[in-house]
Write a structure and sequence with these properties.
The chain is α/β, with parallel strands linked by helices. It contains nine helices and 14 strands. The N and C termini lie far apart (41 Å).
Length: 255
Amino acid sequence: MAVEIVTVPCLQDNYAFVLHDPVTQETAVVDVPDAAPIKDVLEARGWKITQIWLTHHHFDHVDGLPGLLASHPAQVIGAAADAHRLPPLDIQVAQGDTFSFAGAPVHIIDVSGHTLNHIALHVPAANAVFTADSLMALGCGRLFEGTPTQMWDSLCKLSALPPETIVCSGHEYTQSNARFALTIDPANQALISRAQEIDKLRAQNIATVPSSLQLELATNPFLRATDPAIQAHLNMVGANAADVFTEIRARKDRF
């Protein structure tokens, strides 16, 4: 499946994603923070949307939907458990469900934590997962509704995907996330190198999203709560991983 994935900057620091399959000509959009930049991508390429996937209800992921649908009608897919606070859905999904895009399965993963009923969408044939504000580049979403244990469980689900999976997350927070990560895992040479590369990219206004799961597993402290070096740095050697994650998240909230 030779799907093209376009990262679309929206608003101040959001990202939407457009997937296009050149064989079937099917096109999907993941989250709609703002209609205009997504329309620009579609119209420049002559693509017609068939599906829109919503990860969660926050305004900066859905507010552009009416404007996009007005000129690009498509099926809207989102979490059944959040249907009461999402825009109207044509297809409602839940943990473990699949639906088809361009003849390939899209797997639904409940990644509650940032919000309750937040979903991620894994497309194995495209080697990609769309995580929005759950797993982020060098970070994870702030816990507005869920508990630390819920978010840790969600991150464990995502960590179990193939390491070559491309992680398409929802915001350009990576540079600030890197600064924080270095306070948690200061001797991690892979993290040090990544932080330096991120600084170079952002100096040129180049996006740091998407990333790869392999890179996140090596450098993202929110995925590394079982790492002995991090546990030692936090004076939590041998602690339960969920408790270590909770401490890391609390420190990020104060950072």
